[in-house]
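During the first year of the project, the team set up a workflow for recording each protein of interest as an amino acid sequence followed immediately by a discrete structure-token representation. This format lets reviewers and collaborators read both layers of information side by side without switching files. As required by the reporting guidelines, we include two representative entries from the current panel. The first entry is reproduced here exactly as it appears in our internal archive.
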Amino acid sequence: MNLNLVKKIADAVLYEGYLLYPYRPSAIKNRRRFNFGVVHPRDYGLAHDELFCMQTECLATGNRRMALDARVRFLHMTAREGWQEAVEREVDAPDLNVADLLASPRQVNFAFPLKQEEKGAGERPEQETISGSIDINAHQLAEQVFKITVRILNLTPLAEAPSVSRDEALTRSMVSTHAILAARGGEFVSLLDPAEPWREMAGSCSNIGTYPVLVGAEGERDAMLSSPIILYDYPQIAPESAGDLFDGTEIDEMLTLRILTLTDEEKREMRARDERARRILERTESLPAEQLMKLHGAARCLRQVEDGAR
């Protein structure tokens, strides 16, 4: 597995929608977050009909000695004055033997406790507690074909959930939640384009709030990214991109040019309110001319046209 390539794709998923142009917390589009992959506390989810459990199901081929590694990643929102900044969280479930999973599911419990800043008595803590579990099991569907199920649950207690606001719930939610699965001694099956022997079994996989795709170098089948964003197998970061902009629905060149035209006051807010926004601004302002030209366009997958072809 190409770990560097997988991490680049996973990081792009992790921060998609985190902060949108004009990258100022005071901008209207950033006052109400639109994040992918939000797994709310169960109490809030039940009260407001929101997702509190994310489920990944995929197929893996191999024998019972096949080993799996699972990693769940998400953002833990931190309350700032007028803004919610993110802290990256990871929970690992390594060395999962398929034979053991067939006999008994594996559960990994986790908790990221309340973080109290040094403030005056009675002030609200900066970061709320998040706790949950990852449940992993396997079922054999055919000779050397296994269905792997990973459930991510947010079990954070939330008193008076029906009256809690969305912003309050986000500080106890898992945001941009996704899972990375790796196989040793086996391979994953594409759910987008499964080979005929596995097509019906692939269709039986039930995914909730996520879309598993093969990830890594083209043709490799030892890693799968279960993303809250719809992707194709083997997603890639465009080589022309100078860095994260958190908004995959926009064009890098357009966002770059827009950032360069922000007022001095807008740039001061970018620098002051969010560390990732500051890095975007500094990187954009220091881009050399040749890098800007690379953003203008690229031609790929060209083919020769035969005489008379249309």
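The second entry, processed by the same pipeline in the following quarter, appears below.
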Amino acid sequence: MPDVSQRVQTLVQLSDELLERLDRTASTRGVSRSQLIRALLDAALVDERDEIGRRLVDGYSRVPQSEGRDAWGDLEGWSEVVARRNLAALADEEEEGW
């Protein structure tokens, strides 16, 4: 948990019912309302990041990346062409005295 001096206060509007549930849960856990809110937000944001990772893994499991060619063409071949073009441009610059 970051140092208190590094925290920023924010205003959040809650319904009476949600506030009551929040206070009951905080009391049951023996923490302050603020501590509970921070913990719940942290858990939700971690879950969201984990869900994105799971979806990426699932997508690559269902449709694995092919070697070289894909929907846009031959990536390896394109990379080689670009590399040769860049090396030739550098050689031309050296000849011109750059």
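For the second entry, the following points were noted during internal review. The CA atoms of residues 12 and 37 lie 11 Å apart. The two ends are 53 Å apart (CA to CA). Both points are flagged for discussion at the upcoming steering committee meeting.
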